[in-house]
């Protein structure tokens, strides 16, 4: 049986990050993220916990409008590839089109973690985690990479993830979400602004 973290959730979370900085059929970015969380909580996926909504600068900073982000912990019997396919179907239902990386998007759903699994294998994950910044825009993986190879670098992921799974520990890096967040530059964390008081 999985140990629980201080949120009452099991440590072997499946975490999904949501982001929007464009209008979808559900409305503006904040309405889109709220509607997407409801869409996730149907069929084979159950939402166990959700973070507050946050506003963060687009990456790369200043190139596009700010993004509304959240992280949810879910449970499902879907395997990682099938879950990723389901996430892409939900994105499409919000008029997401995939033309180029790091562009405006009505909805972005990223599979951050799948329990304590490393996929497809440790050496491939390490290669993507260590990928030089100048290559990150040019290369995209051809298969699911779990945990998400950039999560430890991104305040807009770790701040909401700490709301729902602060004790989840990265199986390659060995650090918890709370520890990875504490290791980020304070100025990066300060840019992530909560849109909710509770």
Characterize this entry briefly.
30% of the residues lie in helices and 18% in strands. By secondary structure, the protein is an alpha+beta fold. Strands 1, 2, 3, 4, 5 and 6 form a 6-stranded antiparallel β-sheet that branches.
CATH architectural category: 2-Layer Sandwich
Mean pLDDT: 88
Shape: globular
**What is the gyration radius calculated from CA atoms?**
16 Å
Tell me the domain tally.
Answer: 1
Structure classification: alpha+beta
Stated plainly, the CATH topology is called Alpha-Beta Plaits
Q: End-to-end distance, in Å?
A: 30 Å
Measured as a percent range, the helix fraction is: 25-40%
What is the assigned CATH homologous superfamily? Answer: 7,8-Dihydro-6-hydroxymethylpterin-pyrophosphokinase HPPK
Low-confidence stretches: 1-6
Biggest beta sheet attributes: 6 strands, antiparallel
* Count of individual beta strands: 6
- SS summary, helix count: 7
How do the SSEs run, as a string of H and E?
EHEEEHEHHHHHE
CATH class: Alpha Beta
Beta-strand percent range = 15-25%
